[in-house]
Design a protein that fits this description.
The complex is a heterodimer of chains A (356) and B (643). Chain A is mainly beta and 356 residues long. Chain A is 6% helix and 48% strand. A 4-stranded antiparallel β-sheet of chain A has the order 3-2-1-28. Chain A has a 4-stranded antiparallel β-sheet with strand order 4-5-6-7, with no helix packed on it. Chain A has a 4-stranded antiparallel β-sheet with strand order 8-9-10-11, with no helix packed on it. The relative contact order of chain A is 0.11. With 643 residues, chain B is mainly beta. Classes of the chains: A mainly beta (356), B mainly beta (643).
Chain lengths: 356, 643
């Protein structure tokens, strides 16, 4: 092989090497917002992937920040970030599959402590020294002291997987998100005892909330064994005022009220990729049937997973997980259905927490 | 890849005498004529008992794992062997944990595993756990890079791992019996037995292997604290029995039964406070095989039954699942040698798989019936080897035609070219179609085109040998299946994926007296990116697939002296993205591993001692995110041949 051939070989080799992609990915820049005026986006992450994250949107600055926990603490948050709650000067983050509640100082997101609770789901503040924590797969509602960041007790309910909770005078309601249960439980928050059980229209009650008339709405359903139902009932008597039955193909989730609590917004998700029963639906609390057409339809191979209404602006926040295999998107709609804005967040946006 | 090699035959005087068996005059004449000229024969090295590889895949890259490497890894599983020695990605969920295989950026379900020609992926999942395949049981291990759905059927997209047991022999003087044993770090104990006995017409062999390991290796958690890995015990037992009867000359019927059970505790991921997860995997594989050959014809028939059971429990979340899948695989074939240059193969594979769904009390079945053929011709003194193949397959009600062609050409005695073009195909698995909840019965098959080409350089002198092989591949797959979801996960046809890359295999050996030095480097560069997606504003377009390292390589350097051999192995695995939009990734890792083997004899019984030290640089790494792998660990073993 002559000298010319060697040069040609070297040039060809260099060209081939140069055409290879650089392996090191672009650096991920994590940012933090100001301490106030935030709309937090609870990004669940993928179950089993440990990529839960906390993002925030500052409406005043029109800026998105995250992963806040990683930016401040240089470590991942955990697996399945289910919900968060601001109590006193601290933020309480339920990391479901990591079996912990991460407690952060609300002004700088530095860790203030950790509470170990199996599969924590939601936190209901009762007073400054008491909050309830619902849990998946157990029959326990844990009692924590938000000041001392400790578990102080637990309440046993007659069913598995207490999920959503709602205060009502000196009581709190929770369901049993289990396909065998069709009751919600009324817990006396003074005695921490279950005082009453009320039967609802469907099985596996998971979300409870109060409308403007102080009537209780219960979303039940456990896909695919139990079709979704909504029940409107009078909590003082237990009388069912109205029952709504979703089609078997509809998977309802994450209901919220508007700021006047006279209109219910709810996600219907179609995991098969179709557009039927897929999108954001809304209805008056006095409607006698479920809405048939979506307020914000999902397109083919899309479904929504988070829904919230900004108490200040009334804007509707929608989370699109994009299959939970990549960063999700958040869409902001005006109440008239006009799309205002969209931005990317972490994997699996599942809840919005308005901390403005 | 066509395995052309040169046999140098020097006819010495004694050989001549042996051949002609005649008089001293003849001997004297033979000697007087001096040594005959060197004869070069271009032929096929039988790298496999399977005719599809030996005779009808001249243009495919086939890598045969060296028998010495099989000996070195005899007490380990295929996942360890492949991750250290081959440029494929082994997605390991922890030390001795579930591990799947990925060829050339293909998914685990697109990387097939065959045992004596029978697919052994779990019929429901479509994947094989290569950590549960004992090296001890295998006599030959081949890796076929690139898909060949025409010859091998649905699922062979990225490549295939071919495992073969020892072929029956009928030699009354060749009975064998050996014991193996080993112990290693983290309370790892292993024991094996291999034996065979044969007569003029019958053959029987038994392989038994058992291991137990605590796997409680020290690791560092996310906040820098140290602990020993809890809930990580492994216990497994495996047995493989073979029997064969020689009906006539080159007419053999054989049966094999392989049963194994793996009881595993599944340790917590770094994001979990604890784990009580357990899994028991049991597999029963039965195979009956008949082969008859004459000068021009070969007939064969295979019939297999496979039952895979996975029992998973997590008492912390009140979860228990018991999944059982079944598979019948039958294949009959006929090979005809047409003349000195051509041969023809027809075969009919039938695969019936089914699962039982306890929630809906239903049985779901998938039937694959195909008619396939291949024609191979060798021209120019066998320097050019061309093969064309095709398969018409019916999968339940869906019909598909899978053509392909490949060729190799030996330009010189040291340089050979090869090329391969195949239509590739993967039918959705039973789980993807019917898993409850989430199965998607409207899934379309993944399909596309695979092309690859390469060359091999082999140079050999008296004490020096060089081997260099380069392959470039290109593959487009439409309707790639990906699980997406939240409350319920459902597989969808989401995208077109384009995979392309280059692999090299390089070896140099130098021999001097009793010394033999070797240096080998394997490299792999794979781009596997989403081209199009049905998902709105999909961030994965143009991005590398999750768990597909762009760069992967191994280095082996060592020597053998007499009965001692030493090897240092170094592996590199590049960045792996864990999301489809490259927004999350895990860091590259390198491991250094040392292997030592010593062969000796005690009272005429051969004794082989092996020692392996893995991860000698104590690298903290994860093959799968949040699943830490152990630091320095040892395994010492022996094999004593009684017979």
């Amino acid at each position: 092989m002559g000298a010319k051939s060697y040069k040609t070989l070297i040039i060809v080799t260099c060209c081939l090497l140069a055409s290879c992609l650089k392996d090191k990915p672009l650096a991920i820049v994590n940012t933090v917002p100001g301490a106030t005026g935030n709309i937090y986006i609870v990004c669940e992450g993928r179950y089993g992937a440990g990529d839960a994250s906390l993002y925030a949107y500052e409406p005043a600055q029109d800026s998105v920040f995250g992963d806040i926990y990683m930016a401040v603490n240089k470590q991942p948050l955990g697996d399945v970030f289910q919900s968060m709650q601001h109590i006193g000067d601290k933020l309480f983050l339920c990391i479901n599959n990591s079996g912990k509640i991460v407690v952060l100082n609300a002004d700088n997101w530095m860790p203030a402590g950790t509470i170990s609770i199996p599969q924590p789901r939601y936190i209901l503040p009762i007073n400054s020294t008491k909050a309830y924590v619902s849990t998946l797969y157990s029959n326990q509602v844990y009692i924590i002291n938000p000041r001392t960041i400790q578990v102080t007790g637990s309440i046993t309910i007659q069913g598995l997987s207490p999920e959503g909770m709602c205060p009502w005078y000196d009581n709190a309601f929770t369901g049993s998100w289990d396909s065998l249960g069709n009751k919600i439980f009324e817990i006396n928050t003074n005695t921490n005892q279950v005082a009453n059980a009320i039967t609802v229209a469907g099985y596996a009650p998971q979300e409870v909330m109060l409308d403007k008339d102080q009537m209780l709405w219960v979303l039940a359903g456990y896909e695919p064994q139990r079709a979704g139902t909504l029940t409107r009932l009078d909590p003082s008597t237990g009388a069912i005022l109205q029952s709504y039955y979703f089609p078997a193909a509809a998977f309802p989730l994450k209901p919220v009220f508007n700021n006047t609590k006279d209109t219910l917004y709810i996600i219907e998700a179609n995991y098969d990729g179709g557009t039927a029963n897929n999108g954001i639906y809304r209805m008056s609390i006095y409607d006698t049937s479920l809405p048939s057409a979506p307020f914000v339809p999902a397109v083919q191979d899309q479904y929504f997973y988070a829904l919230g209404i900004d108490p200040l602006s009334g804007y509707i926040y929608i989370g699109d997980p994009k299959g939970f295999n990549q960063r999700g998107s958040v869409y902001i709609y005006k109440p008239d259905g006009t799309l205002m804005k969209s931005f990317n967040v972490g994997v699996g946006p599942g809840h919005f927490y308005f901390d403005e | 890849m066509g395995r052309l090699f040169i046999i140098k035959i020097f006819y010495t005087g004694s050989l001549i005498m042996a051949i002609i068996g005649t008089t001293n005059i003849a001997v004297a004449q033979g000697i007087r004529d001096s040594t005959l000229k060197e004869v070069r024969v271009h032929g096929k090295h039988k790298i496999s008992a399977n005719t599809k590889i030996n005779d009808f895949s001249p243009g495919q890259k086939v890598k045969t794992i060296d028998s010495a490497i099989l000996q070195q890894y005899q007490l380990q599983n295929m996942a360890n062997l492949l991750s250290q020695q081959e440029p494929v990605f082994v997605k390991s969920y922890g030390f001795n944990g579930l591990a799947t295989l990925s060829f050339r950026g293909a998914s685990a379900a697109q990387s097939a595993v065959y045992w004596n020609g029978v697919p052994i992926q779990n019929a429901a999942l479509g994947i094989a756990d290569v950590s549960s395949l004992p090296v001890l049981f295998m006599n030959k291990v081949n890796l076929v890079y690139g898909g060949s759905s025409a010859l091998w059927g649905s699922g062979n997209v990225g490549g295939a791992l071919l495992l073969e047991n020892e072929r029956p022999y009928f030699d009354t003087s060749k009975n064998t019996l050996s014991f193996s044993g080993g112990l290693g770090s983290f309370n790892q104990y292993l024991a094996g037995l291999k034996g065979s006995i044969s007569g003029k017409r019958w053959y029987f062999s038994a392989n038994v292997f058992a291991q137990t390991a605590q796997n409680n290796f020290p690791y560092t958690n996310e906040i820098g604290g140290g602990a020993n890995m809890p809930n990580s015990h492994l216990q497994s037992e495996a047995a493989l029995l073979q029997g064969a009867y020689k009906i006539g000359k080159q007419n053999v019927i054989s049966i094999a039964a392989w049963y194994q059970q793996y009881d595993r505790e599944i340790p917590p991921a770094l994001y979990e406070a604890s784990s009580v997860k357990k899994e028991t995997d049991g597999s029963l594989r039965l195979l009956a095989d008949w082969n008859k050959a004459t000068n021009e014809n070969t007939w064969y028939a295979k019939s297999s039954f496979i039952r895979d059971e996975i029992n998973y429990s997590d008492t912390a979340v009140l979860l228990r699942t018991d999944d059982v899948s079944y598979q019948f695989y039958q294949e009959v074939g006929w090979k005809k040698r047409l003349n000195n240059f051509g041969q023809l193969l027809f075969f009919i594979p039938v695969q019936i798989s089914w699962i039982y769904l306890p929630d809906s009390n239903e049985t779901k079945q998938q039937d694959k019936i195909a008619l396939a053929g291949a024609y191979d011709v060798k021209l120019f003194s066998s320097r050019l080897d061309v093969s064309a193949n095709a398969r018409a397959e019916v999968i339940n009600t869906l019909s598909v035609f899978l053509p392909g062609a490949d060729a190799s050409f030996m330009i010189t005695d040291w340089l050979a070219l090869r090329a391969n073009a195949q239509r590739t195909y993967r039918a959705p698995t039973l789980n993807e179609l019917y898993y409850d909840p989430g199965g998607n019965t409207s899934l379309k098959p993944e399909q596309g085109l695979n092309e690859d080409a390469g060359y091999t350089v082999k140079v050999k002198s008296a004490n020096f040998a060089l081997y260099h092989d380069l392959s470039a591949f290109n593959r487009d797959i439409h309707d790639w299946i990906l699980w997406i979801g939240g409350a319920i996960w459902t597989p969808h046809n989401i995208a077109e994926v384009h995979s392309r890359g280059v692999e090299t295999e390089n070896n140099i050996t130098y021999t001097s007296g009793n010394w033999k030095l070797h240096l080998g480097v394997n490299t792999s560069y794979v781009l596997s990116t989403t081209v199009a997606s049905y998902i709105q504003n999909d961030g994965s377009v143009g991005k590398q697939l999750p768990y597909t390292p762009r760069y992967n390589g191994q280095l082996n350097i060592g020597f053998s002296y007499g009965q001692v051999s030493f090897n240092y192995n170094h592996t590199y695995t590049g960045y792996r993205f864990t999301t489809t939009d490259e927004s999350e990734y895990i860091l590259p890792y390198q491991t250094g591993n040392m292997q030592l083997m010593y062969n000796t004899a005690i009272h005429n019984h051969s004794l082989q001692i092996t020692a392996q030290c893995n991860n000698i640089w104590n690298e903290r790494y994860q093959a799968v995110a949040f699943r830490p792998m152990p630091g320095v660990n040892w395994l010492v073993g022996f094999k004593l041949a009684i017979l």
